[in-house]
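Q: Got a minute? One more chain.
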Amino acid sequence: MIELETGQAPLYAVIWMHGLGADGSDFEPIVPYLGLNPSVPVRFVFPNAPQIPVTCNGGFVMPAWYDIISLAADSREIDEAGLLASRDTIAGLIEREVARGIPANHIFLAGFSQGGAVAYLTGLSYKEALAGIIALSTYIPSPSQAAQLATSASKPTPLFIAHGTHDDVVSLKLGEIARNTVTELGYTFDWQTYPMGHEVCLPEIQAIGAWINARISNPIS
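A: Always. Here it is, folded:
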């Protein structure tokens, strides 16, 4: 796990989950490009997924938040128990930040691809409202599971959802299904698309930074 602080005594935290096959170092380099308010120190936490066999990749062992059994253009068959286990791990990291003095409503969850699925489920099912959920090029593997586990306490949590229009790994359709799911569950969100594949781009990173800055300026009470 990698930690990075933009100043002393952080007032906010961002827990950022990488995608399948990557690690916690994947998104560390983007922090300077977010353009965050320098007067508000933020702690970034970049955890590492466990090393597990991934069925859709021939059982190859790699960093993964849960096993993916099969892929389709508009669906995923996954190990839901594995997703729940990762949800619990990230919820534990939220509790760790709370114990270090950062309240839940000052904690953002961010995730790319598979990591975004963990961010979705953790944030929607958490016992309190968080500062926000940032869901990048990702999906909700089981909308019915998300609906079942979503808590009323989490409903004020805002979301930033972004997807590439040319994504051939996690289709735009999957991103739209996730967006529609949180709409039906009553969450508020910003939806952005970018002319890119399964990746992030500088305008998206800058938009994330602006969105975080806005939440920091007007936190959930």
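A: The longest strand covers residues 12-17.
Q: Perfect, thanks.
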